């Protein structure tokens, strides 16, 4: 076998492609040709190094001297960016809980400014109205977007737990009327139906068998593939 043909076949082998000549002939040539054997070893080492560089993302545009500051900032951004959303959610949640604790212990952070309407409870009434409207719209949307039911159920259950505590304590202190207590019934019902909706499926949802997700049937059998030898012309 000619060395050019052998090296072409070896190059295809390194790339994972089909060799143009039978692999047994190529191996026989390697055993008898030290030059091709040396070439194959060096080519294999270079191919392995290139794969490692590609996997680590070190292959980039060829230019002048790399900007170390830009590279450092880019590396820092790649490490931090996957956690930005989680960090933002946690920070916002902590801020909301902090405001709730501040109100619960009676810390004054602008709640009693008469010229803003807070002394008469007007702004607090508006906040309650906005919250009730948001929960009502989200509950209606749940009827058409069943996938939001688990998240809405989580919010409503926690809200109802705190609301129930304050209703009982305020009722014992004579700070709430029976009519106001009854006005909280819809949100309690919304919590119940959101839990129910999150645990059920819509009537027209496909069954697990129709989607191929039936656990009892076990994993799907892999499609049969007939492997052929590299020497086979039909491979």
From TrEMBL:
Alphabetical keyword list: Membrane, Transmembrane, Transmembrane helix
InterPro entries: Znf_put
One Pfam match: zf-HC2
Membrane-spanning intervals of the chain: 84-108, 128-144, 151-169, 181-198
Coiled-coil stretches noted in the UniProt entry, renumbered to this chain: none
Region annotated Disordered, chain positions: 200-235
Domain Putative zinc-finger span(s) in chain numbering: 3-37
Basic and acidic residues: compositionally biased ranges: 203-212
Protein name: Zf-HC2 domain-containing protein
